[in-house]
Each structure stands twice: as C-alpha cells, then as structure tokens.
Write a structure and sequence with these properties.
single chain, 302 residues, mainly beta, endopeptidase fold (from Nostoc punctiforme), SH3 type barrels, six-stranded antiparallel β-sheet, 2 helices, 17 strands, 30% strand, rod-shaped
Length: 302
C-alpha cells in the first residue's frame, strides 16, 4: 500500500545506515527523533519509494539534491514521465541556490489534481499530505520551483491505455457503392465473387476485422477500401420517358453500371424508362428491346 501516514520508530527505510537503517540520505533538519532522515523531502521520498518495493534494503540511492533526482533515477534505469502516476516521485527544480523539492504521489484524482506525501528540510513538521493542482504548470509550486517530471516506481508502472476500438467509417443503414471481392466471413475466409459499382446498404458490421462490412442480401463481407459513400445522382432534367434520342456515347448493360459496355453510338432510339439515382439511369431501346443504359450526357434529344 502507498504510505499515507508518518513513518514511525524502527522503520529502517527512514533511518540512515550509520544509525542502523537502510537510507543513504543525510539526516533531516530538525532531525526527527524516530526517523532521522526527516525532516527532509529527499529523505522521505527516497525512503517511501524504496519502502514500496519491500526488498529490505535501499535499492535506489536517490541521495542527492531534490532537483537532481531525475538524472540519478535515469542512471538507475528508472522511467521519467510528464503525467502523474501513483507511487511516483514528483520532482521540482530549484531556482538559484535552492535545491529543489520532491514528493511521493499517493493519489491521482485526475489529470489536473494529485495528492502527495512529503517532508521538507527545515520544517517543524516531518510529514504532511498536500493536494496539488497543475493550474500553473508547476503542480502548485511557485515560479522558484519549475516542475521536472514524475519518476515511476517499478511497483506501480504507468498504466497502459486500452487499445481503442477501431472506428468504422460506415454504419448499419448507410447506403454505399461497393467494388471488389466478397468474402464469406469478416476475417476474409472463402473469397467469392467480385462486384462492380453495386449500390447497396450496410446491414452488418464487425469492428476489429479486416472485412467488417456486409450489405443487403448478405452478399458477403468487404473491406473498407472496397466501399465508397453513395451520392445520389442529380435528378434527370430535359429527358423524359418517350423522348427520341441519339446515342452519342457508350453506356452499360445495367443501370447500376456493373455490366458490360453498351454501344450504339449514332443510333436513334427512345427512352423507355428512367431509374432515378442510379449511375446509368436512362433505359434506351425500341420495339426490338433494350439497347442499353446511359447517362444524360450520352444522349442527344431529337
């Protein structure tokens, strides 16, 4: 557990080696009668940091000026981060001759508020708990104490953020145009037929898979790069069912555009039917049958 109370007599993590303890730090001022490294921020932070490891000795010798804890920690293989982590040592630099300050993070309330346990050289109180806010970028200290970072305790590693759930571009109900290979399942098993310019609707999604989309009629599963949003074609103007037209460009054998090219350039035909919203909306032919499906710019009204 993170220490939240004053160390008491006999706690060797807060007693110098010369007095039978584990600590390599100097004695505090005024020197506490029970734990002689107090009052001193360095003695407390070093003791509490090592105490949490429960090794029965001082593994990390952070016995230096508080502002130099960062360098000593890095040399010892410890990690330094900018965000607060429970159990870590918060480290401040000291302006001019000031030696800086260190404290142990005992609670992370949010990204802007922490609680620390600490001590201070020259303080009549050998231990206290502070609530600190980062409104000034220095976690509550004044301009004489710029903040340097948090030294992570190996017992309380920085939490690894959860892997975000993939954000899908399309959702159930979206009308889309699909082009590409279809698969039997969302993992790409049993590749099937290929579709071209098929206008359809997303009916199922499977986030986290390589082929997460299925569409109307359970055609098969597709990858996102095989799909594009459906944009309705402008409503036809100037051409109506029954109009006689001259074919001036090629069309398709399907109003969806997924069938072979339909020719007939130069032929005179009649508009038989109009499929609004499809890529090739004009069904053109005569009494003998359909010649093909065309866009407006492929037809010249007579």
């Amino acid at each position: 557990m993170i220490r939240t109370t004053r160390p008491t007599a006999g706690n060797k993590y807060f007693i110098t080696k010369s007095a039978g303890g584990y600590s390599t730090c100097i004695v505090g001022k005024p020197t506490d009668s029970q734990c002689n490294v107090l009052s001193n921020c360095v003695g407390y932070a070093c003791g509490a940091f090592n105490e949490e490891l429960e090794l029965g000795y001082e593994k990390y010798h952070l016995n230096c000026n508080a502002e130099n804890f960062i360098e000593r920690a890095i040399a010892s293989g410890l990690s330094v981060v900018k965000e607060p982590v429970i159990g870590s040592i918060a480290c401040w630099e000291g302006a001019g001759s000031k030696a800086g300050h260190v404290a142990i993070v005992i609670e992370v309330i949010n990204s802007n508020c922490i609680k620390t346990a600490e001590s201070g050289y020259g303080s009549s109180n050998p231990f206290w708990i502070s609530t600190r806010y980062n409104n000034n970028g220095r976690w509550g200290q004044n301009s004489d104490y710029p903040f340097r970072g948090f030294i992570v305790n190996p017992k309380y590693p920085k939490p690894v953020p959860p892997t975000p759930t993939p954000t899908l571009k399309y959702k159930v109900g979206d009308k889309v145009i699909i082009n590409g290979r279809l698969y039997r399942n969302a993992d790409g098993g049993n590749p099937g037929k290929t579709v071209t310019n098929r206008v359809t609707t997303i009916t199922r999604v499977a986030a986290g898979h390589n082929y997460p989309y299925n569409t109307t009629g359970d055609l098969g599963w597709m990858s996102e790069d095989s799909i594009k949003p459906y944009t309705p074609a402008p409503e036809p103007t100037g051409l109506q069912v029954g109009d006689n037209v001259k074919i001036v460009n090629v069309g398709r054998a399907s109003s969806y555009g997924d069938k072979p090219v339909a020719g007939g350039i130069g032929w005179t035909r009649q508009i038989l039917k109009i499929y609004n919203g499809r890529p090739y909306p004009y069904q053109v032919g005569n009494k003998s049958g359909t010649t093909g499906f065309y866009k407006a710019d492929a037809l010249q009204k007579l």
